[in-house]
């Protein structure tokens, strides 16, 4: 029987609104001179009233068109963005991976492994024990002491994924991380994710690859214009997504 | 039941890896700052030494307003002011440059600040060691009063952390805060007894000793390290209260503006 203790992520009535000024008053001078004449603010409702409970060990997929709110939802769930309304309750350490967010490009792979591992709650002595595995898995043996700004996007993603997998983040948010990297690495990565579910770790995958979502996700959330239209059976969610795409085209 | 301060501190060192993490990040930050260029750590020394040289020529040799041990006097004032400057103006874009830490792994932002302040403090200690090595050559010696450096440094660190928090969070709201702070820092420099002899500063602007926390810290540091005079506790008390006051403002800004950092940057 599932209990409250099994819940890794609880999203309750989550809404996110971005308030954007049409101009760009972002200096003291501009703010001062426009004190009594502020530019109008536009509100963009990126997420509307999202409810979601994700259990430990589940792999959940988020699908939807561009601008549907998938990445915003993931960032709110990872506490990168602050919710405008509602809340997100997390149990355990989190790691968010997407193409824009990553490790420090000024640091080497070695330093990034230690900083990220430590940020995920590991002691230095524990990081020492997994260090070689992380490097081997990421296939970066020859670039351990190279700053990652000299890496390709695929190499950075491999390293980030390898750290998350070996440092055992309780919750992994994978936002389009499989868009880069070759087939061999993808297969390796999937095996690691499958193993992590057995260990009770939770994975959230955001992807436009329906094959990947259907193959690995237990449940799928379909988002459209900031609303969660459906959450449940992957086949149904994917069918709804395709149907909407068909209507639009 | 509320945790006592002792339990909280114990948690930092025993039950979590926070202390270890802050130290790790401070070491990496220090390495990035000083070991990424050919001059290495010598670079950290170049600025105070060149400044001391300029002020010595201008004030002691040309204007003849220097006092005994003027080089040591200016050097100590400068390293305190430079540490404060690096922690305040030098960290204005901290939330921008370190965003990978709090976005990628959801790290507590305060830990990031502490690591940077600590990293700068290592550089400060390096300069202080050079000062201590220089002192005997200038006929200066130390006594047991050196122990008073502990509360003094603690106050300096709190003050530096406070301004780092305030400025970097204000940067989210106004991007030109660095230009404004450059002017404020310049005023602060000339309103602190960095280069003026203590007695002239005291006679001309006695009220400023209590209004500018950096003045008090510099004067007390000189009392301890140069004059065997112990610490002026009244001045120290003022400085400590200022530091706590600004820290509260900084933490409040971090709590209110900090969560929007990812959106605004």
Plain-language structure description:
The complex is a heterodimer of chains A (249) and B (265). Chain A is an alpha/beta fold and 249 residues long. Chain A has a single domain, classed as 3-Layer(aba) Sandwich (Rossmann fold). Chain A contains eight helices and nine strands. Chain A has a six-stranded mixed β-sheet with strand order 5-6-7-3-8-9, with helices on both faces. In chain A, strands 2-1-4 form a three-stranded antiparallel β-sheet, covered by helices on one side. In chain A, helix 6 links the parallel strand 6 and strand 7. The longest helix of chain A is centred in the last third of the chain and has 16 residues, at 183-198. Chain B is built from 14 helices and no strands. The chains are: A alpha/beta (249), B mainly alpha (265). At the A-B interface, helix 1, strand 5 and helix 3 of A face helix 2 and helix 6 of B.
Give structural attributes.
heterodimer, A: 249 residues, alpha/beta, Rossmann fold, 8 helices, 9 strands, globular, B: 265 residues, mainly alpha, 14 helices, 74% helix
In short:
The complex is a heterodimer of chains A (249) and B (265). With 249 residues, chain A is α/β, with parallel strands linked by helices. Helices cover 37% and strands 28% of the residues of chain A.
Q: Report the order of strands and helices of chain A.
A: EHEEHEEHHHEHEHEEH
Q: Compute the gyration radius of chain B: what is it? A: 19 Å
Strand content of chain B: under 5%
- According to DSSP, the number of beta strands of chain A is 9
The neighbouring-strand order within the major sheet of chain A is: 5-6-7-3-8-9
Mean pLDDT over the residues of chain B: 86
Described by the principal axes of the CA atoms, the overall outline of chain B is globular
The number of helical segments of chain B is 14
- Share of helix among residues of chain B? over 70%
Structural class of chain A: alpha/beta
Average the pLDDT over all residues of chain A and give the rounded result: 83
Q: Please give the domain count of chain A.
A: 1
Care to count the β-strands of chain B? 0
Low-pLDDT windows of residues of chain A: none
Largest interface: A-B, 36 and 26 residues
